[in-house]
Each structure stands twice: as structure tokens, then as C-alpha cells.
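Sample entry as discussed:
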Amino acid sequence: MAISNPPQLPFTPSRILHLDEGYLAIGQDGEMLLLDQNLTYSDEPVNPFPISIEQACIIGNNLVATWLDAELMLARMASINLDNKLVEGPTRADLRIQKSLATALHPASNIWSRVLDSQPLALATDGERVAFVLWKKGIYCLNPDSSEIWRSPEPVWPEVSNMPRGDETVCMNFIDSEIHIWCAAGGRLVLDADDGTIIRTERVDLDAVIENVYRDSQHELICSNSGEAFHYSDDVLKIQTNITGPIQNAIWDSASNAWRISGWRKEVLLLNQPTLSEYQEIPVHSLNIDGQWWNLFNDGNWKLSNL
């Protein structure tokens, strides 16, 4: 059954994560709010984390997320059970008076929380385990309880090692029994998800700096830092578009056999040719609710898609 217009979120959203029974809305400053399947809510938003969240994923009904304060040189990775009520955590002001590792502050109501000694660069899950990359440290894979499954050396991409940003991790994805880690110069490192061994490395030849790669089945959308989007399927670059601005999010629309891209004041349906709809506000995410596509905008409002 089609839903009515969902209520406005009370903060500037950065992302929406799918849960078994609803969604988790995360704000630019680390706010969290649980939404039901109709995108409505009854609680007030809270900040379990002291600052904005860098990376986040869902395992079961647990959130695993990282935060980084570059100025204070502090980073954490923690898991929160979303079946429990979300509560306020420490503030950034609290972090400033932290004196030692023994008194390190952690997100409120965490199941587990780790102090990180390096910047978290990428995070991904297949629903059963979580993998992440730490700058100049390596690649790690954990069980949901944070016990380590394996670790591997930091990623390298020989095919692009002599190119600018050829050592810069930008994202990672689980694909069946593999983990794919991308660098900004177009290198892809493929690991065995069970033990972290290298399966292959390769280069996707693009005249662009990669910022993110979205994946659904055999379809990939490679997004540049300047707003270019390349539909990559079966090792072939099929379609591309330039939406002249940052890409906020992308989701595969199986009914349309196309990518739905949330861009800079526009939504794009990347089919045989890109079709777009322009807005005054910036769409940050799109969701399919009972056959209707809803766009979430940076002012917290939802609007039905025009595409």
C-alpha cells in the first residue's frame, strides 16, 4: 500500500541504512533516528557518537560505524544494538579533556568499541562479517562480536602505482565470496573474503578520479569526484553521464534496469540515456517503498520521484 508524505527529519541527513524492520537515518553531525517501514518516527534524534560518522553498515540489527576527529587525532570503531533505545553519548567537548587511553570515551550503549590508531578509510559488510581498511596499517575482517577473522597488509594496486592517488583507498564492497577494494586512480584489489588472500588486481581505465563505487549484482556504478558516473557491467563501461556536482548516493532500480543517482540538486535515472529531474534542494538518498520512489533531501524533507 502506498504511503502518505513522510514527516520531515529534524536534522540534515547524510545517509539512510536499511534494517529488517525499517530504516536508520544518520545526520551530518552524527544524529541517529529510527524510522519505521512508512518512514515515520516517534522518538527524538540522539547522538551516540560525539561527531559525524565516517563509515557505517548494518550487521543483523546492529550498527557498526567509525568516527574520526583529525584535530584531536582520535578515532573509534563501535557497534550499537538497534533493538535497544538509542541514547546520547559523549560530546566533542568531552573528548577534549580526555587524558589517556585508559579514560578513552566511547559511543553510548555500545556492544563493543575499539580505539583506532589510524584513520579508517573504508568499511563494508556481507551481513555476517565486517571488513575495513586502516591507513598505513592494513585490511581487517571481524565477526559481529569484533573478534578478528583475518588481517592483511595495506592494499596496493600495482597497475596504477605510478599514477597520482594510486595508493588512496576510496571504498570497498563484498561481492559473493570476494572483497573488492578500489583506489582513486582506478585500481581494483580483489581479496578472498574468507582469508584475505589476494585473488587479483586490475585497473579500470577511466579519465577520472574515483570517489565511490556502488554495486548491485553484476552492475557497478563508478563515480568520480567531479560528478561523472560510469555504469560498469560485465567488465564493460556501458553508459556514462556527468551531473556536474557531487554524487550523494546511487541505488540500482531493477524494475527500470537503471541506476538512480542522487546528485547535486538533481536526480538522474541512468538508463540507455540519462534522464534527470532538477530540484531546489539536494537529494541525498532514494528509497523504494511499495513501488514508489521517495527522495530524501538535505533539508530533511521527502518527495516522490519525478522519474
User: Anything to note?
Assistant: The chain has one helix and 26 strands. The mean pLDDT is 92. Residues 33 and 45 are 5 Å apart (CA to CA). The longest helix spans residues 92-96.
